[in-house]
Amino acid sequence: MSGEVVHKSHTKEYMIVFVLLAVLTVMELIVPELTLPYAVHGGLLTFLALVKAFLVAFFYMHLKEETRWLKYIALVPLSAFIYTFVVAIETMAR
Questions:
Q1: Is 42 inside a domain boundary?
Q2: Sign of the torsion formed by the C-alpha atoms of 12, 17, 20 and 22
Q3: Which residue of 51, 76, 77, 91 is most buried, as measured by CB atoms within 10 A?
Q4: Number of Cβ atoms within 10 Å of the Cβ of 59
Q5: Residue 21 pLDDT > 90, yes or no?
Q6: Does some domain include residue 15?
Q7: 62: alpha, beta or left, given left = phi > 0 and alpha = psi -120 to 50?
Q8: Residue 83 lies in domain
Q9: pTM value?
Q10: Is residue 3 part of a domain?
Q11: Residues of the chain with pLDDT > 90: what percent?
């Protein structure tokens, strides 16, 4: 039949993402133990959290298979983070 849908297994892809998430989580546990300035700790932990959120949304929530428009809509929370980050940096500079 011409209307048959072939299902592709994502198991290997999901396992790779799972391992990446586990590595990032271990990194999040190591960063606070490092002797770095407070702002660097915060910046690194925030960056790691954003990378983890991206991996979960892109692979497990299937954003990679969505239309371009929906991918842009998913960036709206990122713009809120950037705004908050800029305001926090500006407040710390005072």
A1: yes
A2: negative
A3: 51
A4: 19
A5: yes
A6: yes
A7: left
A8: 11-93
A9: 0.69
A10: no
A11: 24
pLDDT tens digits, residue range 37-79? 888 888 899 889 888 988 888 888 777 777 777 767 767 777 8
Could you tell me if residue 5 is inside a domain?
Answer: no
Q: Tell me, what amino acid is at 56?
A: V
Into how many domains does the chain fold? 1
Quote the tokens at residue 27. Answer: 């990194």
The token pair at 63 is 């954003």
CB contact set of 59 (below 8 Å; sequence gap of 6+): 13, 14, 17
pLDDT at 1 over 60: no
The 3-class SS string of 25-46 reads: HHHHHHHHHCCCCHHHHHHHHH
Q: What CA–CA distances, in Å, run from 21 to 14, 44, 48, 90?
A: 10, 15, 10, 32
Exposed/middle/buried for residue 83 (C-beta within 10 Å: 0-12, 13-18, 19+): exposed
d(CA 69, CA 93): 36
